[in-house]
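Check the record.
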Amino acid sequence: MNETHYQARRQTLLASIEEGVIILSSSPLKTRSNDTEYPYRQNSDFYYLTGFEETNSVVVLVKTRESNRVILYVEPHSDEFALWNGARLGVEGAMKLFEVDEVHSILEYPNHIKEILREHIALYFDFYDDSNNLKLAQQSAKELREVRGIKRTIRSFHDVTHLTRSMRLIKSPEEIDKIRHAISLTALAHHEAMKRCRDGLKEFELQASMTYVFLSNGAMNEAYGAIVAGGNNANTLHYIDNRDVLKEGDLVLIDAACEWELYASDITRTFPVNGKFTEAQREVYEKVLDVQLRVIEAMNPDVKRDWLQRYSEELLCQALIDLGILRGEVKALIEAKAHKKYAPHGIGHWMGLDVHDPCPYTDDEGQSLVFKAGMVMTIEPGIYIRADDESVSLKYRGIGIRIEDDILITESGCENLSFMIAKTVEEIESMCRS
């Protein structure tokens, strides 16, 4: 993404405050075991404002009545580090690439931060970031309060993530392009899994075939831990063991997707292990699909997300009644939460730099946000019937179905960004045969 996009975001953020200092820190390295780390993934808010992917870095945005200033602190270049881990950009490299006012070594940050905070009254940071860089800023603010001769000191703390994540709600065309590309690779991976699936294969073998598609097309990271759940495993919503044998006559639910340049996709498809739906599987599947299509059709600007949730629950409850799984009137069943036994999760979530984008769902008054063009939300209805549920007809037991697509709100309605992934019974059976 062009550096001007990050510069524009920083200016938008600064325009949202009267005056003060904003500090955001990069993600730390996370230990996997002993002296090895997990693959590094940058803090999404930090990346959103900088485009910088290196660890141990800080961005400081300063606003006064007269001017704005942006300062980036980075790890300095080290020949020894480059030998073992690869070269860092260093101060000079970062200054050439990023349109900021100043770049300094992170080693200078402890000495600089107290001077930066001097004579400011507001500090904006991530309240849940417990990194040393943020602790140092808070300690410096406290110490300045005790210094004689300083007329203005930090007297209010603010959560900067509420501002950044509100900005992240509306995706730019460039962000949507990255999401589209992630989805296009995820589509290839789901289709590959449908083609390869057969009785006797292990769940992790399907996962491996999808991972190969991601890596061979340059998508280095999954957007989240893949779920490959055969048979009754699909009724464990966050099943990630992926070790069981796929069996003739069962369905397999795959919830798996990749990132592209840190932007996520999030897709779920459910299909028969042998490539052919049984009559009972088809009945449940087409009910879930009908709910999904009707919910997507209802999405447009000015619709509230909480209304969409209620609408989806009404549709799912009616589907369960139609299947004979629930008995009674929709309104009474929903009030009793009877449908939650078989449709326990929400209809969808924001998606972007995080697969579950932590953007707000309500405004400052606690009212549900309305959809606006540029928002991206998953739509993922599901019906889950455990194998040991004797209150349900035997033919439905052990069936777990979720169908998930990524939906972009447009000026006039919405667009299913993942429309190309086989989804109808006929499309899935055809893909499985190919």
